[in-house]
Design goal:
Number of domains: 2
CATH class of the largest domain: Alpha Beta
Order of helices and strands: HEEHEEHHEHEEHHEEHEEHHHEEHEEH
Largest sheet: 4 strands, mixed
CATH architecture of the largest domain: Roll
Strand content: 15-25%
Distance between the termini: 45 Å
Number of helices: 13
Length: about 290
């Protein structure tokens, strides 16, 4: 299959706004459509390149007819790299990335009917603790994708009158800047977090994120280092992947003001700092909990 056919928009969907007959609170008024998707035969490298080029971290897997089969995110890729590195550290990274998406995709996709309301969608996101939903029709054909950011930016519901301290994650799992990439990835997978505050000693200095890892794996740097092995990759330093321009908030900031700050960044999260000490961590999911429904 050619690359042009591997990455595609779901069949039968036109690039236009949702039809006017959908109800105001229908999920189709707020979800992103047409959805970008791949097939099971797409290579991991092609998937990574698409994630980097399009800025997506969640890409759904469908049949050629658009029937939903799975989802691939940076966490599945990271888990696969860790697994393979425990088997043979001498394997070239690019050889691993020639693997098809079918090897790493997650099949237990959280989906919702295209006839569902936004309230139902928000409740499902919070119940399942997911940042995105696959929107499907009665035949399980992927029609759209609804993310937490779609809810926060488009649904136009007020946020509760609370402070950052009241909804932030307290005592977040962190990673030290002097640790190896393997240590960082094992911490991510072990705790199930794709973003970890990064510390230099006891001082917060940025964010260790799956996004920066994906940017490296799907970018030109790795291509230039064609001989890099899994062992070489895992021995790299966390410092090579730290994002330092992440938003920083005071714990007493209102959640509304905090969202105004976070939405202007592309990271969807913020470090909560007081007197150069990390007080907590704030993500889009925390903002979702503050939406009044």
């Amino acid at each position: 299959m050619s690359k042009k056919k591997e990455i595609r928009y779901a069949r039968g969907l036109e690039r236009k706004a949702p039809p006017t007959h959908v109800y105001k609170n229908s999920i189709l008024n707020y979800a992103s459509s047409p959805p970008l998707c791949v097939t099971k035969t797409t290579s991991l490298l092609r998937l990574l390149e698409t994630m980097v080029a399009r800025g997506f971290r969640r890409i759904f897997v469908t049949t050629p007819k658009g029937i939903l089969e799975g989802v691939a995110t940076p966490m599945e890729i990271i888990q696969y790299l860790l697994q393979r590195s425990s088997e043979d550290v001498e394997t070239p990274v690019l050889r691993i990335l020639s693997t098809s998406v079918s090897k790493i995709m997650r099949k237990d996709v959280v989906s919702i009917s295209q006839s569902a309301s936004m309230i139902e969608s928000i409740n499902l996101m919070m119940q399942k603790r997911v940042n995105g939903l696959a929107v499907v029709d009665d035949e399980n054909v992927l029609k759209a994708v609804l993310t937490v950011r779609d809810v926060l930016e488009k649904f136009n519901r007020p946020l509760s009158n609370i402070t950052v301290r009241e909804c932030m994650s307290k005592s977040p799992v962190c990673i030290s800047i002097d640790r190896s990439l393997r240590d960082g990835l094992e911490t991510m997978v072990g705790f199930g977090f794709r973003r970890l505050p990064c510390l230099d000693g006891s001082h917060p200095i940025g964010l260790f994120s799956s996004r920066s890892i994906i940017s490296y794996l799907g970018g030109k740097a790795l291509i230039r280092e064609a001989g890099k092995t899994l062992g070489d990759l895992m021995s790299m330093s966390v410092a090579n992947f730290v994002i330092k321009d992440v938003p920083i908030l005071d714990p007493e900031t209102s959640i509304l003001e905090a969202w105004d700050t976070v939405k202007r960044s592309s990271y969807g999260s913020a470090l909560v700092v007081k007197s150069d000490s990390l007080e907590g961590f704030l993500t889009e999911m925390d903002f979702l909990k503050a939406v009044e429904i």
